[in-house]
Amino acid sequence: MKSCNFSLRPIGVIRTPFNGVDDQVPIQGRLSPETQGEIHIYPEFIDGLKDIEGFSHIILFYIFHKTAVMKLRARPYMDSVIRGIFSIRSPHRPNRIGMTIVQLLTVDDGVLKISGVDMVDGTPLVDIKPYNPRFDGIDQNEPIRTGWMEKPVEKDGNRRITINSRKQWLHEQDT
Length: 175
Fold this sequence. Notes:
Number of domains: 1
Oligomer: single chain
Helix content: under 10%
Distance between the termini: 39 Å
Low-confidence stretches: 155-159
CATH topology: Elongation Factor Tu (Ef-tu), domain 3
Structural class: mainly beta
Shape: globular
């Protein structure tokens, strides 16, 4: 099987309150729905936002631009066992593509206000898709397996689950 090369062109930039991995970036945006940010769409792509304001949630695809590290195995942030990179949500992937479902709050002249952010400020956005539970959700009657993630995520009161250091971000240190 022959591999192919491709390139992605950013359509905008994601602005968040997190300047770097030491700023307690949430490990999953859905676990920190109060964390807000903005998406600034580049002018040549603004026309593509037509009708997006009718959706409560959108799926963002972006580039993990703060890493040049690639790992095929790493310890997930909420586990103590080293696992394959395709079974965890680490940023240190072969193609560094990230995905997050966020709540869309407002749309105004190419700026989308969102909540549930889990990326650092300045993240290049490469695509947006509208979230639709009919297409993106799994029917509750259909058997669902979540592998090693079967154990539910627990939060300590209002404490977010976050990255606290570069070593933790690189999967080199326990939480």
